[in-house]
Each structure stands twice: as structure tokens, then as C-alpha cells.
Amino acid sequence: MEKTYFPLDRMRAETTPFYYYDVKLLDATIDAVKQSSSFPGFHVHYAVKANSNPEILKRIAASGLGADTVSIGEIKAAIDAGFPAPKIVFAGVGKTDQEIAAALEYEIGCFNAESEPEISAIEAIAKSLGKKAPVALRVNPEIDAHTHHYITTGLAENKFGIAMSMLSKAIELCEKSEWIDFKGLHFHIGSQVTDLTPFKILCERINDLQDKYTDLQISSINVGGGLGIDYDDPDGHPIPDFKEYFKIFHENLKLRPGQQVHFELGRAIVAQCGSLITRVTYVKEGVDKKFIIVDGGMTALIRPALYQAHHKIENLTSTSQEEERYDVVGPICESSDTFGTDELLPLTKRGDLIAMRSAGAYGEVMASCYNCRALPGSLFSR
Ligand code: LLP
Q1: pTM higher than 0.90 for the full model?
Q2: Cβ contacts of residue 325 below 8 Å, gap of 6+?
Q3: Where are the alpha helices (DSSP H) in 23-96?
Q4: H/E element holding 101?
Q5: Residues 364, 302 contacting (CB under 8 angstroms)
Q6: 245 CA distance to ligand 1 middle (Å)
Q7: Is 174 helix (H, G, I), strand (E, B) or coil?
Q8: What SS3 state is found at 11?
Q9: Whose CA is nearest to atom 8 of ligand 1?
């Protein structure tokens, strides 16, 4: 796979900041997902929350993947982009009555329910609409995914999922309802998981549960998403190791005959194809530091400020052979609005274009208008 090519002439003509998407890399990534997941009964859903730009969604929908959603807005965006409703799953701890009703009207593939009160709400709404609701239960598998504490979700104290000790009661609620079609179990251990061991532990946990509930009809197992990417070296690892990832589930999950396995990958599919492109407004000399102030900050890409994440920073237009250390910061009135400290970059001047790489996931979707700033636009490779 060639490294991302930045069309500088087109970029110079754009209003910054904007997101640049390398659609060839996106297509190659989707191909890799499809090839590596071609085991019997495996289905991949794209987690829309990672990036819901309509162009990106359309490409992923056209490839045949399903969608994983967490709000009625995401369900609508997925349907508009061409994802068939039966391939859409709907998760989230706080689905409102309106969202549940709309999802039932769309006839989506499955609700991933996260609590007993939610099961009761789904049942009541399904009954009132005369539509049986397909429901999987999200189980909290109590696995440490070794990732940032804001994006680890499978620990006992997290708000997500149903504790294993409370699962039997939740299953019973589904089983005895004539308005719920119990589909199976759902899990998600966290995001940006780079060591694959937690996924193997997840398989073992699922096997144990299947052994415990031998009489229960479980047609679907949803293992969630979470596969991480290489933020340090996007050109060295533009496509995550999907082969190893899917192989873990193929080799470790003990499936019953006919059982289907669902995946919900977000970041791994879209992160590397996107970069935030900013323009240098000023190069400012401090007492013993130099600052590059760019025109896009935490309102365009909040991950560094929110999760202390680091995105590789590149000066796309400097031709200087000389290098210097800079702090690269945004224009927002918050000290956390910093993309990098002591970054070694070629000599940088006002007007240069600076890319924050690996920003295709949880970048554009998390942008805000704080400080009355305009939302970043988007530009696609040809
Ligand atoms: N399934 C469920 C139930 C989830 O909660 C998530 C992500 C995914 C799938 C997709 O996970 P992925 O494959 O993208 O890791 N804004 C944070 C990430 C939040 C992830 C939330 N849940 C960030 O920028 O790192």
C-alpha cells in the first residue's frame, strides 16, 4: 500500500481546517477487512460513531458491511447512506422511547440492550406497535482492555452492559416476553486495543457463558469492536492487522452449529485514511520555546485535549532541510488545546500546511463550534 498522497495544490485552495480523506486507503482497508473476516458466520458492522461523514458512510455501505449505531440520528444516517435496515444493530445505555419506536419501525436487525429497565421499555413499545423486537443482551465481561480509562468499557464498574451476575434474570425477562425475539449476547471491551490478548480472554469468557447456558438458544454472538491502530507510524502501518484479529475469534470461539458472529469495528476501518489539515497562522517565539499556532484546534480534533492522544504531526509544505523543535498548538482559549510538545519539524513558517495524521476516526464526528468556530469541512482524494 502506498503512503497517503496529499494533493497540495487542491489543499492550498481550501479553507482550513478541513479533514482530508484518502479514499483509496479506505477502500483498501475495507477490502482487507472483508478478506480477513471471510470465515463462516462472520459479519462485520461498521461503528458509525467513528465517522459519519456521508461520503465515508456511502462507500462503506456499498462494500456490503453492516452498521453499528448508538442513536436514531446514526440509524437515519446509515439508512440514508444505503445500509440495509436488517444489517443495522443499535446499542447504547440510554435509548429513549422515541428512538426505540423509530428503530422498530425501520425494522433494524438487532437491539443491543444494556439493562432490565431497557428490556422492559423495548417490550412495552414493541407490544404497542405490534412488532416483535430482536434483542441481544450486552454483557459486561469484566475484562481490562488496557486502554485509556475514558474508552475502556468492559470493567465491572463501567456503566455499560449487564453484569454477569445479573444476566440470568435479564435473559429470563426476554425469554418470557412474546414481544422480544432473543437473539444472543453482545460484548465490547473498549477501544484502541492494541494488545490482542484481551480479545482472546473475551473468547474464553464467551465460551464459559455458552457452557453455562447450554439450554438457551443463542443464535448470535456480537464481540463488539475496539481493534486499535498505529498512531505513531501511519505510513508504516496504514492498515491494521485484521488477519490476526479475526483469526483470534476464529480459533478461540467455540461456536455452536449455525451460530453467527458479529463485529463492530470503527476506528480500525477509518482512522488511517483521514488527516486534519490546518494552516500555520503564526510561528511565535517564547522565552525558551517556539510555538506553531495553527488555525484548527480542539474544536476540530478533540482527541489530544480529551484523551491525551497524540496524532503524528507533519508539515506538508516546508521544503527546508533544517529541523527545529516546536510546540504545536491550536487557537482555542484552553491550555489543553495542544497537539504536540517539542515536536521535531522542518523549519516552519506562516502559511504552511500542517497535517494531524490518523484522524479519520473520532475526529470530524467529535468536532464542535466552541468559541463560535465553524465546523471543519472535508476533502476527498480522487
Ligand atoms: N461497539 C460499541 C458498543 C462501542 O461502544 C464502540 C466504541 C465500538 C463498537 C467501536 O469501537 P472501535 O472499533 O472504534 O474502537 N472517542 C474515543 C473512542 C470512543 C469509543 C466508543 N465506543 C476516541 O477518540 O478514542
Answers
A1: yes
A2: 289, 290, 342, 343, 344, 345
A3: 23-36, 54-62, 72-81
A4: helix 97-106
A5: no
A6: 16
A7: helix
A8: helix
A9: 225
Ligand 1 atom with minimal separation from the 306 CA: 24
Cell numbers of 193, please? 486495543
**DSSP label at 120?**
H
Query: Rounded CA gap, 331 and 198, in Å?
Result: 39
User: SS3 for 82?
Assistant: coil
> Ligand 1 centroid to 339 CA: how many Å?
21
Look at 143-147, 198-202, 225-229, 344-348 and tell me which has the smallest mean pLDDT.
143-147
Pairing of strands 338-346, 323-329: antiparallel
Pairwise CA distance, residues 63 & 76, whole Å: 18
The owner of cell 436514531 is 72
Q: Residue 314: what residue type?
A: E
Cα-to-centroid distance, 159 and ligand 1 (Å): 14
pLDDT of residue 3: 78
- Cell (9 digits) for 136: 441481544
> Which residues contact residue 241 at a Cβ distance below 8 angstroms, ignoring those fewer than 6 apart?
none
Whether 368 shows a pLDDT value over 90: the answer reads yes
Q: CA dist 155 to 139, 142, 144, 208, Å?
A: 11, 4, 6, 17
Substitution site in 191, 221, 262 for ligand 1 pocket (most atoms within 8 Å of beta carbon): 191
Give tens-digit pLDDT for 147-202: 666 656 656 667 889 999 999 999 999 999 999 999 999 999 999 999 999 999 99
Which residues, judged by CB distance below 6 Å to any ligand atom, belong to the binding site of ligand 1? 47, 50, 68, 91, 151, 153, 188, 191-192, 224-227, 264-268, 303, 307, 361-362
What does the alpha-carbon distance between residue 176 and residue 368 come to, in Å, rounded to a whole number? Answer: 44
DSSP string across 92-138: -TT--HHHHHHHHHHT-SEEEE-SHHHHHHHHHHHHHHT-PEEEEEE
